[in-house]
TrEMBL record:
This is Sporulation integral membrane protein YlbJ. The keyword Transferase does not apply. It comes from the Bacteria. Keywords: Membrane, Transmembrane, Transmembrane helix. Residues 43-140, 220-316 form the Nucleoside transporter/FeoB GTPase Gate domain. It comes from Schinkia azotoformans LMG 9581.
Amino acid sequence: MTRSKLKTILLAISISLVAFGLIFFPKESLEASRRGLVMWWEVVFPSLLPFFIVSELLIGYGVVKFIGILLEPLMRPLFKVPGVGGVVWAMGMASGFPAGAKLSARLRQEQQLTAIEAERLASFTNSSNPLFIFGAVSVGFFNNANVGILLAAAHYLGNFCVGLMMRFHGRHNVESEVPYKKVYFSVKEAFHSLHETRISNSRPIGKMLGDAVTSSIHTLLMIGGFIILFSVFNRLLYIVNITEVVAVFVGFILSLFHISTELALPLISGLFEITLGSQLTSQTEEVDLFFKVIITSFILAFSGFSVQAQVASILAETDIRFQPFFIARIMQGIFSSIFAFLLWKPLYVNLYTMNDKQEVIPALANDQGLSWLYMYWDFLLQYGALITLASLCLYIIVYTKANFH
């Protein structure tokens, strides 16, 4: 039997088993689907939509090229990607998954990146945004602001290390490798490129804005489908006890690192969906917070098969391969866990005090520097669904005008 035929059989069996699971466990599937929908409806859609629309406009009007030329002397020596990678990196950190992959694919379609450069860029520009790390994980799950500081530091340092490692990716691919030449900081050249890009784009601002809205909402609809699908899939695995069987093996690996085996189930859940995995990790009782933070760091860095499926779908529209991205997620999981271990004392223990009952009290619980994140998170929880509904109505209007007039 050929490898292709074996793959066909395995895929057919897997899809059939999922279908049977939906039939035999309709109530549990519905609850899992609703949970994924609420997460997308209230948080993911309204938080990502502005970044997606703005990024489309930045590319269309040449602002990305402008910044890219200015950042070329920094990005090329460090990560072996063009200066536009700096914009993708910043937007990826600010907006979260899968913005880095979407922008990398978009720049590849614009021929501003080679295939190898796009693979490098997509590998280290995808990360959880600060809103999710501080708002959902640290405050929502751990009820502890200082945990967010530690998780964010470990997460973004892990991203940086992945970028340094991925600079060696494709170094033997001569056809896709751009010869390095020393580039100097030039505002004049950057402005010239900005002007040329704007002139070459003949679309009026109304048309460009409409295309940006349509493209962004189309991508977010796809993301919502993946979130719901993997939420259901994760629940079905738990119901049929497959998760518990795998947890035995994962627990053995955790025990080798002297980490409680109670975290095996949350870790497996996090491999599929980061929100559920982070929540279950925070709720695990009789486990030291130190180990919870390490596992959560790995979950956030690995990003879950749900996010990886979203990225795979986005990259499939180009010649960017998914395999380097997947390998980079494993690398970042390892790096982030190590940084969480190393930074535990300086970024957590030293920021806390002990009272007479030996209970941990957050020294930065009222940190005004992070208050805007909490306010933004509360705003999304209250008005996120309304923003999503209004955006979908706008999408229908724009799509109808574009296709039926």
